[in-house]
Amino acid sequence: MINSISGDTDFIKVINNSTFTGFVHSTFNRTFNIKCFENGDLYTIACNRLDNGPNTLIVDIDNMKLMEIEANDRVRVEENLLYIGDQLTISIDKACTWESVLPNYPCNVEILKRNLMKMKDFINIHGVGGGMKKNVITLNPFETEVSNILENRTLLLLNELLNDRISSALPHAVSLIGLGPGLTPSGDDFLTGLFTIFNMKNSPFYPYRSFCEDVLKKAKTLTNDISYMTLKKAAIGKVRESIISLLNALLIENDEDLNLSLNKLLNIGSSSGTDIALGIVFGMEANIRAGG
Description:
The chain is α/β, with parallel strands linked by helices. Helix content is 44%, strand content 15%. It has 10 helices and 9 strands. An 8-stranded mixed β-barrel has the order 1-5-4-3-2-6-7-8. Helix 2 (110-126) packs across helix 9 and helix 5 runs parallel beside helix 10. The termini are far apart.
């Protein structure tokens, strides 16, 4: 048996209610995902080196491969314990609860403007190319073409959003789904960042946040299960802790916090962190321009 260190409030509630059954959907070095029979959602068990996130439990182990968890292992809950096949039992008795709560969009955007400039400079230097960020030096013409398509489609999306043509923006957002490299494609990661900003209370685009769920309705058949689940949560403002930390850092004048938060986000996946960060920049700048 291993202990859960922390976990998403809703996931812990489901376990406490003993209403969870499913099977292992996919396994990785630092995580494995469970498909729930009751609602069809994916839930993640993550090692202690990762941050909190929606539908996620952080457990006190640093490598999942040691557990020999395999796809299709059955999952069940009994007496507040989560059983993964015959290999692993997870206790949530000592787990701290965590909930995804976004900060409000600021009334005064001057600090935000300055921090966005710093953020873009940081991404230019430290961000991973090949997705939303172009590789300056690449011998891969396919990668270059994908980056060009991503750039063109985001510009079309921005134009429609800024001209208050939300319904016309929908096909441009949908055209990004499943596009680009990575387990979670670059276009999906970018939309995760953008959806997050749509869900910040008091932002100019907050009244149009149903746009996110309209995009999601088209996404199911266009991307993989893991990426779709991330988009599904982001569409209602539920994102991982590192994204929320960055948003909080963008709203205050503290360069150390901003750089630390950016560095943590950019280290997600291969290019995923960079793609999410650029979606956040895009969303914030669109809000600033829409707000006059």
